[in-house]
Amino acid sequence: MEPDIVLSADRIVTRYGGIKALHGVSLSVKRGQIVALLGANGAGKSTTLRTLSGLIAASSGSVRFLGEDITKVPAHRLPHRGLVHVPEGRRIFGDMTIKENLDLGSFTLADDVERRRRLDHVFELFPILARRQNGDARNLSGGEQQMLAIGRALMAAPKVLLLDEPSMGLAPQLIKEVMNIVQRLNREGVTILLVEQNSKVALKFADYGYVLKAGRIVLEGLGSDLASNEAVISAYLGGVAA
Description:
36% of the residues lie in helices and 27% in strands. It is of the alpha/beta class. Strand 1 (5-16) and strand 2 (19-30) form a beta hairpin. The chain starts with a strand and ends in a 5-residue tail after the last helix. 43% of the residues are buried. This is ABC transporter ATP-binding protein. Residues 7-239 form the ABC transporter domain.
């Protein structure tokens, strides 16, 4: 693996029962990049992230992270290594407080000073979470829940962040706010693999992009090239060029 590549998939095949969802997907993410994984509903985007993070076992192929083969590593061990997954749908715990949700992101951390430093960073990124930290997470809006899901992931101090549809269901202004945070995290040194159905949003930020169709990578290239290619957007992503 090239020195700059921090996460890669090599011909991964993933099945749900007897149904093959991924057909030999290969991709790579370089240190410091935002990489977009694009495609229509059912293309295999979320399945790819779940396979990379160990939530679903690949039937064949391999996944490497920071030079190590992690294909067989249990999902719960990967955040400690720096690979953290923010799933589609946020998956927050509504009957727990905002702070309790955040604390779950660093539950194995013994250093209370470091935990407080991480928490302060999350509260600086998302002031609304600081103001409402003692309230139940169920009372947050959709955009605030997305902020909480990202904040919880940041408590694990990720080296690579897997973000699944962070803009889903959000109003345009909230999408802009969340994506600005994504860009800031990247500037702070977090490498990001971003799954998005909203190609216009993703390609404004992405250094590189992959397009999935029916469980196969059908196209890849610089984010700026994909964003300006009307034929690509129309054929594979169901829209118009950004």
